[in-house]
C-alpha cells in the first residue's frame, strides 16, 4: 500500500492555475513597461498595480462599510513571511507582554513568535463550538498588566522609537474564518468583543485570513453556485467601524492574506491590510527598506490575473466546487467509517470552507498514539491534536488537544480521501480492541 497523507495542508497540484500563470508570465516578460520595474527592487509597499487590484477585490468580496484604498494594502512575501515582518515592526521582545494564540492554533506560527523573542510567553485562548473564551482572555490580560506594572515595564526601551511604528503591549493571533486546524469560525459577537478587548489593552490582532475565499454550503443537496461574498466581516473591517472606528491612526487589527491557497504557495506573494499608518509602517521593515517589496516579480505576474477576472473565475468555478466535492466526500466517509466507532466531526451546518476537518476521538483514545498506529500499520498519515497546542503555555487544561485530530481535504485526490478515512477507521477499531 502507498501511504495516504491526510496531514499535509498543501493545495493539490491539479487545482493550480498553471495555464493562467504561464500567460501572465509571458505578458509580463513581453512588455518592457511591466518587466523593467518588475525585475527591479520595487517600492517598499509593493507592486502598485497589485495593491490597487487587491484593494478593489477585497472591497468586492468583503463589502466593508467604506471601500478599501490601495494605501491600506502592503504587498508581502506571503502570510508566514509577513507575520515575522509584523512582529519586527510592531512588537518588542521586552515591552510586549505576551502573544495570545487562539487555540488549537496553526502549529508552525509558534516558531515565528519564538524567533521574535517570545519563547515562553505564548498563551492559549481556547476556542470551541461554544465560542472564544473571552472571559479567560480578559482575566489573563489583566494579570499580565499587573505583572508589567510590578516590573515597571511601562515604556518600550529595547527598540528605538520610529515615526512609522507603534509598539503594542500585546499581540493576539488568530485564524478567524475556517481556522487551521479546528475549522471553526469566530462569531460576529466574538469578533466585536475581541476588537474591544484589543483596544482596551493595547493589543494588535493579527489574523491569518487565508481560507476566506474557499467556502461552500455544507448541505450536499445545495445548488452548487459560487459564494461571491464573505459571510462575516474580518476583524480589520470591524476595527474600521466599531464604536466610531480605530482609537488612533494605527488601529488594533491587521489582516494577513496570501495567494498560497488560491494560486500556489511557491508564488510567495500575499498582502496585508490595516490602517494607512499600519500598512506604511509594515512596508518600512528593514528588509523591505533594503531590498524593496519581497515578491516584486511574482506580484507583477499575479497582477495580470485581475483585469480579466481570471483569479475570480478560478476561485468560483474551479476551487470552490472542487473543494466542496472533496469536503463532502470526506464527510460521507467519516459518517460511514468513523462515526460508528465514536468519532465526532466538527459541526458542519451552514457555510463551511478551508482545508481541514477536525475530529474528536472516542473517550480515552489518545490521538498521538493513534496517529502513530495509523501510519505504521495502516499507512495513513494524520495530524494529532496536540501538534496544535500553544507551545510553552503552562495552563495545560486549556491547551490539551489529544482528543482531537486534523484531516486535510486538499492534498490527496478524492478516492484517496475516502480510502484514507477507511484506513483510519480500521486503526481506531484496532486501538479500541487493544485497550
TrEMBL record:
<protein>
    <submittedName>
        <fullName>Aromatic amino acid aminotransferase</fullName>
    </submittedName>
</protein>
<dbReference type="InterPro" id="IPR004839">
    <property type="entry name" value="Aminotransferase_I/II_large"/>
</dbReference>
<dbReference type="GO" id="GO:0030170">
    <property type="term" value="F:pyridoxal phosphate binding"/>
</dbReference>
<dbReference type="Pfam" id="PF00155">
    <property type="entry name" value="Aminotran_1_2"/>
</dbReference>
<dbReference type="InterPro" id="IPR015422">
    <property type="entry name" value="PyrdxlP-dep_Trfase_small"/>
</dbReference>
<feature type="domain" description="Aminotransferase class I/classII large">
    <location>
        <begin position="36"/>
        <end position="424"/>
    </location>
</feature>
<dbReference type="InterPro" id="IPR015421">
    <property type="entry name" value="PyrdxlP-dep_Trfase_major"/>
</dbReference>
<keyword id="KW-0808">Transferase</keyword>
<keyword id="KW-0032">Aminotransferase</keyword>
<dbReference type="GO" id="GO:0047536">
    <property type="term" value="F:2-aminoadipate transaminase activity"/>
</dbReference>
<dbReference type="InterPro" id="IPR015424">
    <property type="entry name" value="PyrdxlP-dep_Trfase"/>
</dbReference>
Amino acid at each position: 500500500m502507498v501511504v495516504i497523507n491526510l496531514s499535509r495542508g498543501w493545495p493539490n497540484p491539479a487545482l493550480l492555475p498553471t495555464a493562467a500563470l504561464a500567460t501572465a508570465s509571458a505578458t509580463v516578460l513581453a512588455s518592457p513597461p511591466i518587466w523593467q520595474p518588475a525585475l527591479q527592487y520595487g517600492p517598499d509597499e509593493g507592486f502598485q498595480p497589485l495593491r490597487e487590484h487587491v484593494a478593489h477585490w477585497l472591497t468586492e468580496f468583503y463589502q466593508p462599510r467604506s471601500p478599501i484604498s490601495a494605501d491600506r494594502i502592503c504587498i508581502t512575501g506571503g502570510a508566514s513571511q509577513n507575520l515575522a515582518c509584523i512582529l519586527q515592526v510592531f512588537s518588542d521582545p521586552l515591552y510586549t507582554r505576551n502573544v495570545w494564540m487562539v487555540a488549537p492554533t496553526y502549529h508552525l506560527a509558534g516558531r515565528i513568535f519564538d524567533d521574535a523573542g517570545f519563547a515562553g510567553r505564548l498563551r492559549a485562548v481556547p476556542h470551541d463550538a461554544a465560542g472564544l473564551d473571552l472571559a479567560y482572555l480578559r482575566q489573563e490580560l489583566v494579570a499580565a498588566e499587573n505583572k508589567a506594572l510590578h516590573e515597571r515595564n511601562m515604556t518600550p526601551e529595547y527598540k528605538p522609537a520610529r515615526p512609522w511604528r507603534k509598539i503594542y503591549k500585546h499581540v493576539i493571533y488568530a485564524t478567524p474564518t475556517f481556522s487551521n486546524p479546528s475549522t471553526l469560525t469566530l462569531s460576529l459577537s466574538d469578533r466585536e468583543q475581541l476588537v474591544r478587548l484589543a483596544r482596551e489593552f493595547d493589543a494588535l490582532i493579527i489574523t491569518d485570513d487565508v481560507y476566506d475565499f474557499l467556502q461552500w454550503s455544507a448541505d450536499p443537496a445545495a445548488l452548487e453556485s459560487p459564494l461571491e461574498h464573505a459571510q462575516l466581516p474580518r476583524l480589520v473591517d470591524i476595527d474600521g467601524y466599531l464604536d466610531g472606528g480605530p482609537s488612533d491612526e494605527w488601529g488594533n487589527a491587521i489582516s494577513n492574506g496570501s495567494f498560497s491557497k488560491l494560486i500556489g504557495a511557491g508564488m510567495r506573494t500575499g498582502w496585508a491590510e490595516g490602517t494607512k499608518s499600519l500598512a506604511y509602517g509594515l512596508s518600512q521593515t528593514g528588509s523591505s527598506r533594503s531590498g524593496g517589496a519581497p515578491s516584486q516579480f511574482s506580484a507583477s505576474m499575479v497582477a495580470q490575473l485581475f483585469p480579466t477576472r481570471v483569479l475570480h473565475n478560478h476561485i468560483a468555478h474551479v476551487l470552490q466546487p472542487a473543494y466542496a466535492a472533496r469536503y463532502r466526500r470526506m464527510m460521507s466517509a467519516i459518517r460511514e467509517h468513523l462515526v460508528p466507532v465514536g468519532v465526532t466531526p466538527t459541526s458542519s451546518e451552514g457555510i463551511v470552507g478551508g482545508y481541514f476537518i477536525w475530529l474528536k476521538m472516542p473517550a480515552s483514545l489518545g490521538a498521538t498514539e493513534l496517529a502513530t498506529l495509523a501510519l505504521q500499520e495502516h499507512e495513513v498519515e494524520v495530524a494529532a491534536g496536540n501538534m496544535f497546542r500553544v507551545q510553552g503555555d503552562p495552563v495545560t487544561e486549556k491547551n490539551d488537544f489529544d482528543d482531537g485530530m486534523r484531516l486535510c481535504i486538499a492534498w490527496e485526490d478524492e478516492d484517496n480521501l475516502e480510502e484514507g478515512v477507511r484506513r483510519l477507521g480500521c486503526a481506531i477499531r484496532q486501538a479500541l480492541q487493544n485497550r
